[in-house]
Amino acid sequence: MPAFPQGVHGGTVVPLDRANVDTDAIFPKQYGRSTARSGYGAVLFDHWRYLDPGDLDSDHARRRVNPDFVLNEPALRGATVLLAGANFGCGSSREHAVWALRDHGFRAVVAPSFGDIFRQNCALNGVAPIVLAPSEVRTLFGLAKAQVLTVTIDVHAGELRAGPHAFAFQLTPRQRLLLTQDVDWIAATLAHRERIAAFEARRLAGQPWLDRMFPH
User: Fold this and answer.
1) What are the pLDDT digits (tens) for 182-191?
2) Where does 8-183 sit in CATH, by number?
3) Element (DSSP H or E) covering residue 65
């Protein structure tokens, strides 16, 4: 199931007011011993979320949660939009970080900037990486801290709405395709097969010797 099957998603916001949140903070390395894409939601932000350390054998439902960490606020249970500071998802390129966000239920992360590889991994795994201006992010933090904030995200229109406020953002055509249809990276590339075929025809016309050197 794509994250935005109708192109629009409405959800409650978790305001994580921290900058430079790296992928080890999002998903600690001791849990990354599998390539399964599910089952990681319970260890999202593990070091901040729990008061006691965890490992692969932990029963996370029995661990002591940190009541001061925003993700544990009862009013935000079931939230699907994460609001964060600049450079979110920096550090190592582990894809598990995005898997943990999606498994927990997040469908979008809103921040002034992202780690490059993390941002690429987001749309590929059903999480919209939404970049807004720092001033716009601060406005959203103010709204989220005053009350439980619900936003509506339209990936086709490139607009995030929070009450009377509307903020424009940009996604690439490939990101929109990955978020709104049940396709993987290869299928998203093949959606441009006509452009690929046209490029191959131009290449063959301009450089016919390549086909003699590298025959099909």
Assistant:
1) 655 555 566 6
2) 3.20.19.10
3) none
